[in-house]
């Protein structure tokens, strides 16, 4: 009987410690967001000229927002930069958009188009960017996904964070304002759960690098083997940061978040992304499968409510309800901080989006565990433990 009692109390103590730690992360992330995000960018002339930046823009297909997103890169408030568009196939509609809608409209901006790519591994994004990377002429490389929309001062903000000992400056993922439930769900996720763990990890010095908008010092990347060294990983951003940090360089989060502005938002599309990211995390860090549920409001709250009853005689249901209420209010505060003001929807819409996001989170993780195959664009991959990827032939894939 005694071993069973010790086991029950052991689990209860574990859940209570996890609960306390997550609330410390809540406090840490919110406080850090108020200090870190949306600082005023210093526009005064620098003592030394800012280094040039080569912007790599990998493109695949077009959507209704692509043209306006790309145009924001032609009006950056930065003295010296080039834009290198990368398209894998000649017949991709993005080729015509760049050739006929962008390059003629902005003849005074240094911009080029690279078509074809070079296969250096299984990662299609790296294969697509590699010719442009080899042709880049500046010491700083900005890798920016097609769906990113830039403020005029975003690049200047990133470069100002690039100190002598820093090799990577990345923007925290967020989203532009948009209408519809999918947009609410997207903003709630990136402004609460994603922001909390991203800011907490950065504050604690944990590798949280997401490469959708990432400024890299080229010499540091070359020390790690160059862009091609990470072509066998789908999570090239994580492993790039890992190798660069291992060589003594530092990494910083910029003040301004990365503004994703997809032209085709849907609940299904966002959940497909979340499943893909969960599969990547599980392959890279297998303990994710055990620890990630404890970062979610509902599983953690249920475990902590049971633990409080075992350890302190507390009523589990009131404990759980108070936990959910305070978590909800905490998420509202951090969303306002990341948004730098009120979000573009009502508190009722936030409640619905938040409840949907929290209820779906355990099922997204379960789906990622049950099917380890990763669907990306028109390709499908399977990951080894450690993150190395293998592309699957069409006959070996199945619908996710």
TrEMBL record:
Keywords, comma-separated and alphabetical: Glycosyltransferase, Golgi apparatus, Lipid biosynthesis, Lipid metabolism, Membrane, Transferase, Transmembrane, Transmembrane helix
Domain of life: Eukaryota
Known EC number: 2.4.1.80
Stored InterPro entries: Ceramide_glucosylTrfase, Nucleotide-diphossugar_trans
Pathway assigned in UniProt: Lipid metabolism; sphingolipid metabolism; Sphingolipid metabolism
GO biological process: glucosylceramide biosynthetic process
Any Pfam family the entry gives: Glyco_transf_21
Regions crossing the membrane: 6-30
CC annotations in GO: Golgi membrane
Catalysed reaction equations from the record: N-(9Z-octadecenoyl)-sphing-4-enine + UDP-alpha-D-xylose = beta-D-xylosyl-(1<->1')-N-(9Z-octadecenoyl)-sphing-4-enine + UDP + H(+); UDP-alpha-D-xylose + an N-acylsphing-4-enine = a beta-D-xylosyl-(1<->1')-N-acylsphing-4-enine + UDP + H(+)
Primary location recorded for the protein, binned into one broad class: Golgi
Record localization: Golgi apparatus membrane
The UniProt record lists the keyword Coiled coil: no
One MF annotation (Gene Ontology) recorded for this entry: ceramide glucosyltransferase activity
Its membrane topology: Multi-pass membrane protein
UniProt entry tagged with the keyword Transmembrane helix: yes
Similarity remark: Belongs to the glycosyltransferase 2 family.
Protein's name according to its UniProt entry: ceramide glucosyltransferase
Species, as recorded: Diatraea saccharalis (sugarcane borer)
């Amino acid at each position: 009987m005694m071993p069973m009692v010790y086991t029950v109390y052991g689990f209860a103590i574990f859940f209570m410690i996890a609960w306390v730690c997550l609330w410390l992360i809540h406090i840490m992330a919110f406080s850090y967001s108020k200090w870190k995000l949306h600082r005023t960018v210093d526009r005064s002339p620098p003592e030394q000229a800012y280094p040039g930046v080569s912007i790599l823009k990998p493109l695949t297909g077009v959507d209704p927002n692509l043209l306006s997103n790309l145009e924001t890169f032609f009006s950056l408030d930065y003295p010296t930069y080039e834009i290198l568009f990368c398209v894998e196939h000649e017949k991709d509609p993005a080729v015509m958009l760049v050739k006929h809608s962008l390059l003629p409209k902005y003849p005074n901006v240094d911009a080029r188009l690279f078509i074809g790519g070079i296969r250096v591994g299984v990662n299609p994004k790296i294969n697509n960017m590699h010719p442009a990377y080899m042709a880049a002429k500046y010491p700083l490389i900005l890798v920016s996904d097609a769906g990113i929309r830039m403020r005029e001062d975003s690049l200047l903000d990133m470069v100002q964070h690039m100190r002598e000992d820093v090799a990577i400056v990345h923007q925290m993922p967020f989203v532009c304002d948009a209408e519809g439930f999918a947009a609410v769900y997207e903003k709630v996720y990136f402004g609460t759960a994603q922001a909390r763990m991203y800011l907490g990890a950065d504050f604690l010095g944990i590798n949280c690098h997401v490469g959708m908008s990432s400024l890299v010092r080229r010499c540091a990347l070359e020390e790690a083997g160059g862009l091609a060294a990470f072509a066998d990983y789908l999570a090239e951003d994580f492993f790039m940061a890992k190798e660069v940090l291992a060589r003594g360089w530092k990494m910083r989060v910029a003040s301004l978040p990365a503004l994703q502005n997809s032209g085709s938002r849907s609940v299904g599309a966002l959940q497909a992304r979340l499943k893909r990211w969960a599969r990547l995390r599980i392959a890279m860090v297998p303990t994710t499968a055990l620890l990630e549920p404890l970062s979610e409001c509902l599983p953690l709250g249920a475990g902590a409510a049971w633990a409080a009853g075992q350890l302190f005689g507390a009523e589990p249901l009131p404990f759980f309800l108070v936990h959910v209420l305070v978590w909800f209010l905490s998420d509202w505060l951090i969303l306002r901080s990341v948004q730098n003001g009120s979000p573009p929807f009502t508190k009722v819409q936030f409640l619905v989006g938040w409840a949907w996001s929290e209820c779906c989170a355990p099922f997204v993780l379960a789906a990622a565990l049950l099917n380890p195959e990763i669907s990306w664009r028109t390709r499908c991959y399977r990951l080894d433990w450690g993150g190395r990827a293998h592309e699957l032939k069409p006959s070996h894939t199945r619908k996710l």
